[in-house]
Amino acid sequence: MKRRILFDLGHPGHFHLFKNTIEYFKGNPDYQVFITTRNIPIIRALLEASNFAYCIIGSKRNGFFGKMFSVLETDFQMLLFVLKNKIELGIHCGIVLSHVSLFTKMRSWIFDDDDDDVEPLMVNFSHPMSEFVFTPDCIKRKTKRAIYYPGTHELSYLYDGLERLDNTPVQYSIVRLVAFNGHHDSGHSGLNEQQLIQLVDLLEEKGNVFITSEKKLAGRWEKYRINVSYEKMHRLMSGAMIVVGDSQTMISEAATMGVPAFKCNSFAGKLAVPNMLEREYELCSSYKPNEFDLMLREVETVLNRMDNIAVYQGRLNRFKNEKINPTKLMVYCIEQWELDFIRIKDYKREEWLSLCSNIDLCPKISPSPSTKSC
Length: 374
Prior knowledge:
Blueprint: E1 3-9, H1 12-26, E2 31-37, H2 41-49, E3 55-56, H3 64-85, E4 89-92, H4 96-101, E5 107-111, H5 120-125, E6 132-136, E7 146-149, H6 155-158, E8 172-177, H7 193-204, E9 208-213, H8 233-238, E10 242-245, H9 249-256, E11 261-264, H10 272-279, E12 284-287, H11 292-304, H12 308-321, H13 326-335, H14 341-344, H15 349-357, E13 371-372
Parallel strand pairs: 1-2, 1-4, 2-3, 2-13, 4-5, 5-6, 6-7, 8-9, 8-10, 10-11, 11-12
């Protein structure tokens, strides 16, 4: 009897987090993998580029009330999907599968790398309803359901590094801008137009500048817009001189590839994972919007250094040596279906490193793909 696993993806970052685990179990004849998402073009493009079959459940809306309506709509549709397909385990980063697990036999496992203080909806309406909340060990949770591990979400897809994208300029920088429309983004801000002008002017002195943005850009910035498919973005980032922006995720991704990374938004200093990357490993730097001038001076200093690659690679190597690839954690926990989780809840860093060093991520090959379409 095949184990039936569902991965629910509500954000492009969720695709990257789970894609290697999906690939592993997709080729394993003992499991049947299902994927659900909302009608989000970026996620759909990433899934299709990976040849992953998927189903669209519910919709995605902005604003507090829009998001609440989306959750209720998606809850109902997901409940029907889980019952119809007899899902046994739901793996996700959101709220919906936690709710559905209350009315079905499905187990709910959350992978969450945000601090409790900035995500009250998750803390109150998702964590208490899930079996486990897998959490980087630099975060401390209110829930007793947390399983702490030494790692970050980004390591699940960037641990082994990436090859630089072909046919790119010798020297280039990347600027990332976000829309701040997430449920935890209310009241927060990043780079403004005048700051963007100053930043691009500085970066252009050293090479090409590419801009990637969630929000609509003024016409003057169109010539800087990145023209690369979504699935190639990380390879483009890996070859950059520097990545600067107001994004949480992309700055952490750049740091995880050993690329100098600078963040300017009002979350600066408030989140455990970016703080760990900055303060323990010096892989990135964060500044509040009113500290922009200070950030600009630091960016200029880094651009003028000749030994960035060696310096940041050394820091990255130490970081990776002290962390695990979370994909191995996922594979281990899923394969040990009846695992005594009480035991691993108390694992320390050395125990996780030892456990994950013995896990082989080469998938068991199945005669046919086991991701399930609607």
